[in-house]
Structure formats: C-alpha cells, structure tokens
Amino acid sequence: MITVAGFNTAIDHLFTLDALAPGAVQRAARAELYPGGKGLHVAQTVAALGERVQLVGLTDAAHRNLIARRMAGRGVLFHGVEIEAPLRSCIAVREADGRVTEILGPGPALAPAAQEELLRTWWRCAEESALLVLSGSLPRGFVADTYARMVRQAAAAGLPCLVDASGEALRHAAAAGARLLKPNRDEAAELCGCRIDAPEAAAAVARALHAQGVAQPVVTLGAEGAVGFDGRQAWHAAVVLERSVNAVGSGDCLLAGLAVALKRGEPLEEALRLGVACGAANAMDEETGYARRARVDALLGEVRLRRLAA
Ligand SMILES: Nc1ncnc2c1ncn2[C@@H]1O[C@H](COP(=O)(O)OP(=O)(O)OP(=O)(O)O)[C@@H](O)[C@H]1O
Ligand SMILES: [Mg+2]
C-alpha cells in the first residue's frame, strides 16, 4: 500500500474559452468542476499504474460525494477529514492556444483539532503502508516544518517518505532527510539560489541535496525531462512530445511514477523512466494531474535515459 498525504484538497474549476480578456465579461465554451490538489493527482495516477493507494485529505459537506465518487471511480481509498469551512477553490482558464491561467484560492485556516485529526488519520494509514508520499501545500494553520516532522516520524518507523513541497516546507523536509524530494526547476533554483539552465545544473542541486541526507533527489525540468541522483550516478530522463495540451500536474504524475517504481524495488533510473512517461502522459491530455495507463505504457519505449558525467 502507498499512502499519500494530500491534505489541502481543492475544488478545481476549468473554464475553456477562446482568449482571456482581463476586465471583460466573457462566456466560457466549456466549464468543468472536479476534485483536485496535488496529493489527489498523485494518488489517482498511482492507482492508474496498478498499485494500491490511499489518500488522506480534507473534505467538506458540499463536496463530500463528488470527491468520494471520483476517488472510488479511480481506485483510490479516500480518508476524508470533514471540516465546516469550504475547501479551497482553484480556477484554471484554458485558452484556444493552450495557455492556462491559474488562480489558487487561499483555502480554509484549520483549527488545531482538525490539524490533529489529519495527522492522526495519516499516521493510522501510514503504519499499514510500504511507502509514503507527502504532496502539495499544507492548509493554513500548519507550521512550516510539519512535513519535516512527518518525515522524521516515518523514518523512525522505517518508512520512506517522498516529498513534493516548496519554499520553507521544502527546506525543512530536506534537512529532515526525506528519501526523495522532487523540486521543479523554479523550486530548485530558489532552494540553491542559482540558475538551472541545463540538466548538469539540476544534477548539481541533486548532488547537494544528497549531501544533505536526501537519498534520491530528483529535479524536474518541464519539457526537458528530469534529473535524479542516487549517490553514485546522476541520470537524465526525458520524453520528447510533439505537442503539450496541458502540463499542469505533470510533476504530480511524475511523482506517482517514481513512487510506484520505488515501491516495487526498482533503481532510481527505472523510477525516472516511469516518472517522465507519467509526466508526459499527463501533458498529452486536457485533464490536470492524471496519467492514463495506456498513454504511459505507449510512452515508456520513447523515454531517453542517459548518464550525466560527474
Ligand atoms: N511538454 C512536456 N513534454 C514532455 N514531458 C513533459 C512536458 N511537461 C512536463 N513533462 C514531464 O513531466 C515532468 C514534470 O513536469 P514539471 O517539471 O513541469 O513539473 P512541475 O512544475 O512540478 O508540475 P506541477 O507542479 O504542475 O505538477 C517533467 O520532468 C517531464 O518529465
Ligand atoms: Mg510541482
């Protein structure tokens, strides 16, 4: 079993229109609404790859059924902690040329009791798991080193944690010795205070994270793929796509691929192969944060994997 902590469940609204005109009243050609959040994306892609997975996150009365139905349909066991305040809303506007503008709501601020219930639920699930994923922003109210504490609690029980966070939470998780971190180009640049203009620069960040105690750091580079370091060898993996439809959530799908391969005992380079296939598969579809199994299988043979010089 893989357990994903994706506490800050979102309700995503996707509007499709010709061209966004700020300040004007516009009618969308299509409007869709679905449950979202980075942890939810990871969990549904893990399920698509055929591994048992459970997700721990917030829910509210208005969206309880929507989330439960979607997760059940995708094969994810959802453990929702219900709160009174509405979940955060995120709006994405997709234009005809493929450009996506995202507005992310601030989300509810959690009282200590709700925070404790999320952590208790997570730990109950974690104890029956082989691998843990902590993904996305924490709801307001949690302190910045919450992921770091969760990583330490898991490590003490011999459970590896894969973490996708940014800013302070990422810095703390690195210091706590997460098994794997996966900053994207911008997050990694902020972390090291340097520019990441090539896979070699990403490998340097991965090596620095490894020296800090992160066993298998991965840095993602959007269309240029991803770089990982396992303590011996730095690897670069990528899939070249003719066209990207919507790459939002590709990092979440890549993380799902890494989690599934590592849970199966694969070495980091094979995890990167599955991860970049999942990231690219997500970019081929309109839906945010879901890699379909058939697409992933078809892309696996297209992955270019190479060793980077030390
Ligand atoms: N246009 C693309 N073509 C091919 N592969 C892509 C493309 N965009 C993303 N990917 C794959 O997905 C992975 C993750 O993408 P990216 O670096 O954009 O993550 P991210 O910024 O964390 O995304 P998000 O946070 O929205 O999930 C990349 O490492 C790459 O393997
Ligand atoms: Mg990301």
TrEMBL record:
GO CC, alphabetical: cytosol
The keyword Nucleotide-binding belongs to this UniProt entry's keyword annotation: yes
Pfam families reported in the protein's UniProt record: PfkB (PF00294)
Gene Ontology molecular function terms on file: ATP binding; phosphofructokinase activity
Domain called Carbohydrate kinase PfkB: residue spans: 11-288
Annotated Gene3D superfamilies: 3.40.1190.20
Keywords annotated in UniProt: ATP-binding, Kinase, Nucleotide-binding, Transferase
Top-level taxon: Bacteria
Family to which the UniProt record says this protein belongs: Belongs to the carbohydrate kinase PfkB family.
Protein name: Phosphofructokinase
